[in-house]
């Protein structure tokens, strides 16, 4: 059943087989993925990439061509993670889903409020001090002229500029469970994906906006 094997609770480093299983679960949902760098717990570098002073250790793709590389092909995904068993999992946004990325306190408060109100949350993940809400994408791939932007749009180059609410959409990505975090623990699902339609982004935004001011 889609969603069942996915990680629910953060732990000390995921087993490689668990990572492959999760990646294949994402592919079954139609969510493309590609390998990401991993944080290092010892030595002079904080990230497995070759960049000196990496600004986002373990939270970016291995390849600069990640947008073209990301796939749902089970054979290719299995090959990648057999070759790089400790690679993190990167999910491009703005294709099947967008993601609201908020500070943990705001995210957990919003999640509790949505549960109390009986409002569907969609998939929700915890990545250390951030909580990620997966919502329906607002991107229109068939006609890019119809795509609209907003001040919350977030891309990899603006991580330091937006400590509050970040809206990952076209040309961005998120780190997905069970990826390793710099703390030594792993990302986890608070509400795992189950194949149901994703919630409307503006409805979820109503819950998050005031908490992230």
UniProtKB/TrEMBL annotation:
Domain DNA primase/polymerase bifunctional N-terminal: start-end pairs: 23-208
Cited Pfam families: Prim-Pol
Top-level taxonomic group: Bacteria
Protein name, entry field: DNA primase/polymerase bifunctional N-terminal domain-containing protein
């Amino acid at each position: 059943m889609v969603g069942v094997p996915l990680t629910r609770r953060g732990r000390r480093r995921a087993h490689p087989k668990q990572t492959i299983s999760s990646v294949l679960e994402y592919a079954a949902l139609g969510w493309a993925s590609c390998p990401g760098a991993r944080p290092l717990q010892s030595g002079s570098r904080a990230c497995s990439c070759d960049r000196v002073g990496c600004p986002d250790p373990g939270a970016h793709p291995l390849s600069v061509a990640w947008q073209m590389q990301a796939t749902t092909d089970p054979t290719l995904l299995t090959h990648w993670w057999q070759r790089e068993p400790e690679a993190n999992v990167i999910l491009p946004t703005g294709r099947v889903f967008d993601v609201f990325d908020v500070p943990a306190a705001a995210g957990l408060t919003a999640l509790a409020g949505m549960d109390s109100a009986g409002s569907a949350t969609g998939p929700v993940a915890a990545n250390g001090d951030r909580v990620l809400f997966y919502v329906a994408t607002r991107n229109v791939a068939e006609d890019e002229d119809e795509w609209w932007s907003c001040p919350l749009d977030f891309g990899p180059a603006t991580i330091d500029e937006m400590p509050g609410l970040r809206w990952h959409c076209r040309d961005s990505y998120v780190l997905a469970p069970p990826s390793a975090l710099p703390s030594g623990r792993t990302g986890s699902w608070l509400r795992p994906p189950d194949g149901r339609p994703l919630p409307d982004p503006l409805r979820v935004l109503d819950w998050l906006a005031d908490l992230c001011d």
